Amino acid sequence: MEQNQTKLTVIAGRPGSGKSTTLIQDGINAILGGKSLYVMTPTHSARRSLQSAIDYQYANELSTTRKEALRKLRYSIHVLNGYALQEVILIDEMSMVSVPALFNLLYRTQYVRPIPEIHMYGDLAQLPVIKGNSVIEELIRANVEGNVWDWAKNAYENVDFTSLPAPASWHLEHDIEFKVLLENYRLQAEGFTDYNQEYFSYLLEHVIDKAEDYKQALIDAIEKMALIVSPTHNRGAQVNEMLKEHYGKSWYEVAPFVKMPKDSKVYLNPANEQLPELKKVFKFLEVLPDVNDMNKVNFTAYVVTNVAQGATVDNAVYYMGDDAIPDGKTQHHYSYNNFVVSVSRSRQATQLIGKKESFEKMIDIVPISAQQRLQHHKSDKAINLLFENLYARNDELTADDIYELYLGIFKDIDESNLAQADELSDYGIISTPLSKKEMILKFKDYDVMRGLAVHNNYALIYRDYIQSINKENAKGKGKTQAWVNSLSDDELAELKADTDLSRAKFKAKWHRDKRQVVKALQELNEKQSA
User: Fold this and answer.
1) Predicted confidence (pLDDT) per residue in 182-192, tens digit
2) What domains can you pick out in the chain, each with its CATH number?
3) For a Cys staple, 227 with which of 148, 313, 388, 476, CB 3.0–4.6 Å?
């Protein structure tokens, strides 16, 4: 295959190290040099953040020539699409740009002359892309020994290279130039040099970790228009509950943000009494367009970390609350990268709210690995083939029979024919079949109508399994029941007394649903009196 001659440069650095400023200057230089320019951002919020930085420079620029270049630069920004064979390509927030997105771009630059140049700006210690690898993650994985996320924690002070070979699957003729921005302008005012352990220790020393103080800290954040960031919506819901209880009927005028039902996008609240000021503070968000019925709008005070990525504000708080970090598949929502993104949004030191040990644990959790992300591709393909097999037969198989059939299908799959074959090979992924339990849970997606067409209904396998689980939970083995059972006598007495509180107040104090707790207490009483 012919190698692509497009020249790539990576400009890496922590938040506050001047990546956006460098991008803007590179854009100005391209325009003043008479070159065509295309700027790509991965999200609309990233585009608004970059436009805001350009607007700031424009307002303070004295040169008419540079002002005109800044104006052209602003209108050269596109979200992922829109490349029209320009000579210079600038990619912002490359940690959020997937490798397939880069491939699409390289496919179009391959035969452009003069040979295009691509400059990519970002930081590995940001949130990974949802699917696949980010451009910078794949580049570093291909060139650094050991755990890539351990490397990210100590980057970029120890970087001793100025170029890196591109991964073989990129098919680039030239090595990739690698530049590092070390000086952190954002943290200088706080007396720190980087988002490192020294800075994290400072934040942890000032953490608000007493539950009775959470509400006031959040009220203070609202009053000074601080950005409230939470790792998940479940924890963010705790923020809203406490603030709703405090502000009461005026909540809709105080909440800084809104969301439409079934829409993940966050907007500025048009009903907020300080909307003009909100626009200045949260420039990375746009105002909710006109809606016919504001009663259908969800008012909220927080954003989750992925919405905040790329934004810069004067003040921010990071809310974790009292709930422990869960084990299992959801733990990657509480990774080191999530922590770094959340505490690096603010020009001032970010206020942490929650248990100190939870924040300390986050710093040690790495994002989901390539093995974790890719290991189920073959097993998922086997499930699809299994379903197609079952749709075509009218005999009756037991769950054990079906599992044996699944294992045979899994064994016969040739990984080189899978869509993710290159990644599976590049990262040495070990594919393993699902357990019988995992396979049964997949039958939630079994097409009942296609099955009935040949007189089988293997969806019942899933239903029967769930019913058996529900029966076990009904015996008091649910998470709430286990938690109640673990409490001391003094804690139980306090818990029982608090069942007189409203659901909102109970939730704010105990971070659990009052109805489930009351049911668990009744179950415990019945067992103790039996």
Assistant:
1) 998 888 888 89
2) 7-183 (3.40.50.300), 197-368 (3.40.50.300), 372-460 (no CATH), 478-529 (no CATH)
3) 313
